[in-house]
């Protein structure tokens, strides 16, 4: 059956706030309306090792203060802790803790998303190419990635085919590329700290 959190989401209205109590909620969650999902360090959303833990497919969603873990592990399906579709404009991902996910946050086509003050701990699989990126951006104009702490995994921030992005104040450690930037234009990379990365 569907988890208690998905039932709560499905019965809510745009603009509602859901406050997660302590405990573990099971993914995969699909947020289909503009909700605020708020937790603290004891609120865990666990994908149980399959698919995306949370999919955001509505604008004006806020996910704040939640522990997000155990996405699927399939690079072909781009399994992510938070996967934001092109319908997820203006999503805010803030103050969350990510661990044991393939890709941390994937912005696949939304506009003006903000990802800030998150801690993303990626895979330490011995083959770097079997790991996923911390934050992955594709065609997401106007999005801002700031003050995140990203460690392990493949590339810290990977941006492809995008424009008008800001990558500011991030701390990027023990990765392949700290910031991997391709087919991207008119963006700012400033005040980031790179430690012990291959590139």
Tell me, what's the shape? globular
Range of helix content: under 10%
Largest sheet: 8 strands, parallel
What's the SSE pattern? HEEEEEEEEEEEEEEEEEEEEEEE
Global mean pLDDT: 96
Q: Overview of this structure, please?
A:
The protein has one helix at 4-10, and strands at residues 17-19, 23-26, 29-31, 36-38, 43-46, 54-56, 62-64, 67-69, 80-84, 92-94, 97-99, 103-108, 114-116, 119-121, 135-138, 144-146, 149-151, 157-163, 166-168, 171-173, 179-185, 188-190, 193-195. The protein has 199 residues and is mainly beta. The chain contains one helix and 23 strands. Helices cover 4% and strands 43% of the residues. The strands form three sheets. The chain has an eight-stranded parallel β-sheet, with no helix packed on it.
List keywords for this structure.
199 residues; 23 strands; eight-stranded parallel β-sheet; 43% strand; mainly beta
Quick recap of the structure?
By secondary structure, the chain is mainly beta. The chain has one helix at residues 4-10; strands spanning 17-19, 23-26, 29-31, 36-38, 43-46, 54-56, 62-64, 67-69, 80-84, 92-94, 97-99, 103-108, 114-116, 119-121, 135-138, 144-146, 149-151, 157-163, 166-168, 171-173, 179-185, 188-190, 193-195.
Write the layout of secondary structure elements.
Elements: H1 4-10, E1 17-19, E2 23-26, E3 29-31, E4 36-38, E5 43-46, E6 54-56, E7 62-64, E8 67-69, E9 80-84, E10 92-94, E11 97-99, E12 103-108, E13 114-116, E14 119-121, E15 135-138, E16 144-146, E17 149-151, E18 157-163, E19 166-168, E20 171-173, E21 179-185, E22 188-190, E23 193-195
Parallel strand pairs: 1-4, 2-5, 3-6, 4-7, 5-8, 6-9, 7-10, 8-11, 9-12, 10-13, 11-14, 12-15, 13-16, 14-17, 15-18, 16-19, 17-20, 18-21, 19-22, 20-23
